[in-house]
Amino acid sequence: MGEYIGVGRKARRCYGFDEIALVPGNVTINPNEVDVSWKLGKQQYRVPIIASAMDGVVDVKVAIAFGKHGGLGVLNLEGVQTRYEEPEELLSKVRAATPEEATELLQKIYREPVKEKLVSKRIEEIKAAGVSAAVSAIPQRAARFGPLAQEAGVDVFVVQSTVSTVKHISTEYESLDIKKLCKTMKAPVIAGNCVTYQVALELMQCGVSGVLVGIGPGAACTTRGVLGIGVPQVSATVDCAAARDAYYKKTKRYVAIITDGGMRTGGDVCKAFACGSDAVMIGSPFARAKEAPGGGYHWGMATPHANLPRGTRIQVGVTGTLDEILYGPARTDDGTQNLMGALSTAMGSVGAKTIKEFQKTEIIIAPSIQTEGKLAQRTQRVGMGK
């Protein structure tokens, strides 16, 4: 498998969203009659699109709004919401900073320690609105924050890092025992990020309910440039979904695959599901919402790293409300709004009544899909030419 890139060294060809297309079905279905719901452990959600645990995307208000739509907005327990009682002043400074100032300012802001009382308070604020609360922590703090989050009533606990493995070697600190965490948490645990069959399988064997797939594809992430690592999302999703299916066949326990990052439009979201995702996690499209705490700016979780930032602050603008981005009516011509409408329409077009059926969609390699017949759009920078 693969082709030679030099003497004695082979490399496997992998694919991203712009290189594939979905083939319409022989039968089509009314988009209003498809079922887009998904399950995480024993929990079921109407919206299979999760808002990323990034400070420019999700705060308590956005998490509540997502919950009322029947979805999940994940709050970052390592962010400004748990470091500062009133984070708005800091967010205003981030929005006002020049590109040259942004990373240094973020590094300074994130030096403030996380306060355990705010971890509990933020979860309780979300729960008080009567919706599911989902939070994220890095592996080094998951064992500490997990019990706090559980006591506060958390519904979903996410353990997230740039690269996640079950076998982590360190002499400087104690590695997280993911299996132990899953046993002690009453709420489902989602873990990631990974991009390979073997790591996804090992995470499932530890008892996680969901696996995040994606290293470096996010709009504000620079991991692929800084570290040179990553696998394009189409291939990564297909490989991890294959691990899920093999694990289910052996154990009869279903673990959700969640493609995380790299999706800008409804078309990208649809391709992720067709490649095997049960849900997707996205950031930059929701950073554009009027309700987003970033006010039109977006930065990755690793951007403020003290020694090796692996993200940058980008300006995405404010294009519409959260309702418009999720459900429309779309006021943009580039597929970045009414993501749920795009998903249900694509499912209807390929004849898939459920997400599981959509995962069986015929996929073709089609790098011309983004450019064929679109010269006018590209020259005028409208629609698919933006």
Helix-strand layout with pairing:
Layout: E1 3-6, E2 9-11, E3 20-22, E4 38-40, E5 43-45, E6 49-51, H1 60-68, E7 74-76, H2 80-83, H3 88-96, H4 99-109, H5 116-128, E8 134-137, H6 139-152, E9 156-160, H7 178-184, E10 189-194, H8 197-205, E11 210-213, H9 223-226, H10 233-251, E12 256-260, H11 266-274, E13 279-282, H12 284-287, E14 297-299, E15 313-315, H13 322-327, H14 339-350, H15 355-358, E16 363-365, H16 375-380
Parallel strand pairs: 6-13, 7-8, 8-9, 9-10, 10-11, 11-12, 12-13
Antiparallel strand pairs: 1-2, 3-16, 4-5, 14-15
Helix pairs in contact: 1-5, 5-6, 8-10, 11-14
Structure description:
It is a single chain. This protein is of the alpha/beta class and 386 residues long. The chain has one domain: Alpha-Beta Barrel (TIM Barrel). 36% of the residues lie in helices and 15% in strands. The protein contains 16 helices and 16 strands. The protein has an eight-stranded parallel β-sheet. Helix 1 packs parallel to helix 5 and helix 8 packs parallel to helix 10. The longest helix is centred in the middle third of the chain and has 19 residues. The mean pLDDT is 92.
CATH class identity: Alpha Beta
CATH homologous superfamily title: Aldolase class I
Straight-line N-to-C gap: 36 Å
Low-confidence stretches: none
Helix count, per DSSP?
16
Quick description:
The protein is α/β, with parallel strands linked by helices and about 375 residues long. The protein has one domain (about 15-385): Alpha-Beta Barrel (TIM Barrel). Helices cover about 35% and strands about 15% of the residues.
